[in-house]
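Deliverable D2.4 — example input (structure tokens):
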């Protein structure tokens, strides 16, 4: 059941105004409330629902019977007292007047946070209720109605959303056709043997794989939908869910004259080129202390960067020094990673005897510096991975020491 929209008409002005209604907004509002309990907080988001813990939409809500829909809500308003408006698009920022324009009215701010996230990339497919991109809680509800009862669902896209949904759906009485551009699942991130192992696992679990395939079009009719591949083949299904990545929502920032380069450019304090405006989350391109300038589309960054942005909105003046990790859970296998996972790099691997737990280090072929660390079924070692990258960058870690740098146990 959806939680109701808390507010339909915002105040005329706020001390702290957040554009975007996702996890970044939630973390920021909670941090603001801690630093400045008396500051007025407004949140205006285009999502139709209040902030939720987004990873659950492709993970726990499908795989953990004890995790219920009631547990996805982040209780932003309840815990912060913020005014929240859902389902409203912000049309413009007037930097001189310290105002935004939304739904035909102006809302003032003392300080503004852009937490606009990203827009799912779309394919050339019909506008049909049985074809959906996947981003919000409303998308989850819609997919739930389409899934089960041995319905056949085509999952398009081999990244986080596609791989997680393919695994989730097949475990919920759904026939799954998983369509992705790589020959092996995650072959653009994992060592080839691990990508093969994962691909075999999907097949063993009953997922029908259409590898090395792109969708170029499709049609919808009374009996279902039909997708057209780049080879000219037709794929029939009852429904399709698309997860082929996102494009950062930078239009507001661009129109306002802020610096934009594959995201809204911020400094180490998460401040944009306007000192009254900060940006955080998927939309922000920030200077990572270990990895250089980054734009990160993962929940850990949304939570941590949102928290720091909220503190800084309220005057804390603290740099964002955290290097986020990313993770996924695929048929009970959990991986965590820091940095860039490029299998064309020089790989150093350390696996347990049964090959169920492993650590993979991705080294730059020229400098020998570790650019990324993959932890496969190795929990609680992300700090160790950060330390490896830092020590490697400073020359304090010899290549021969990598195989023992992080234990697989």
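Example output (designed residues):
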């Amino acid at each position: 059941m959806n939680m109701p929209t808390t507010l339909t008409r915002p105040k005329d002005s706020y001390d702290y105004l957040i554009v975007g209604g996702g996890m970044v907004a939630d973390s920021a509002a909670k941090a603001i409330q801690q630093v400045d309990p008396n500051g007025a907080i407004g949140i205006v988001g285009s999502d139709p629902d209040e902030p939720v813990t987004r990873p659950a939409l492709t993970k726990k809500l499908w795989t953990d019977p004890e995790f219920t829909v009631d547990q996805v809500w982040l209780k932003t308003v309840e815990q912060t007292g913020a005014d929240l408006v859902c389902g409203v698009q912000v049309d413009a920022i007037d930097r001189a007047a310290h105002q935004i324009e939304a739904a035909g009215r102006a809302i003032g701010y003392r300080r503004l946070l852009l937490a606009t996230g990203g827009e799912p990339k779309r394919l050339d497919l019909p506008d049909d209720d049985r074809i959906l991109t996947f981003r919000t809680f409303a998308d989850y509800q819609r997919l739930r109605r389409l899934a089960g009862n041995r319905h056949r669902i085509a999952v398009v896209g081999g990244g986080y959303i596609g791989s997680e949904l393919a695994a989730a759906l097949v475990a919920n009485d759904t026939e799954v056709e998983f369509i992705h551009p790589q020959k092996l699942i995650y072959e653009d991130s994992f060592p080839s043997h691990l990508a093969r192992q994962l691909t075999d696992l999907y097949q063993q679990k009953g997922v029908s794989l259409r590898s090395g395939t792109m969708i170029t079009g499709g049609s919808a009719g009374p009996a279902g939908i039909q997708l057209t591949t780049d080879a000219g083949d037709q794929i029939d299904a009852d429904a399709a869910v698309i997860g082929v990545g996102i494009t950062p929502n930078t239009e507001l920032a661009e129109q306002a004259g802020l610096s934009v380069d594959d995201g809204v450019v911020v400094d180490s304090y998460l401040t944009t080129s306007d000192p009254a405006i900060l940006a955080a989350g998927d939309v922000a391109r920030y200077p990572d202390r270990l990895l250089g300038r980054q734009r990160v589309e993962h929940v850990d960054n949304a939570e941590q960067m949102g928290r720091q942005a909220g503190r800084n909105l309220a005057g804390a003046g603290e740099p964002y020094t955290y290097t986020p990790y990313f993770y996924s859970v695929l048929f009970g296998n959990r991986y965590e990673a820091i940095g860039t996972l490029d299998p064309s790099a020089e790989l150093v691997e350390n696996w347990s005897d049964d090959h169920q737990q492993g650590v993979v280090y991705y080294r730059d072929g020229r400098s020998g510096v570790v650019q990324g660390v993959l932890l496969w079924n190795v929990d609680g070692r992300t700090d160790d991975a950060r330390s490896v990258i830092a020590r490697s960058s400073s020359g304090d870690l010899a290549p021969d020491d990598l195989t023992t740098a992080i234990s697989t146990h």
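The longest helix spans residues 299-313.
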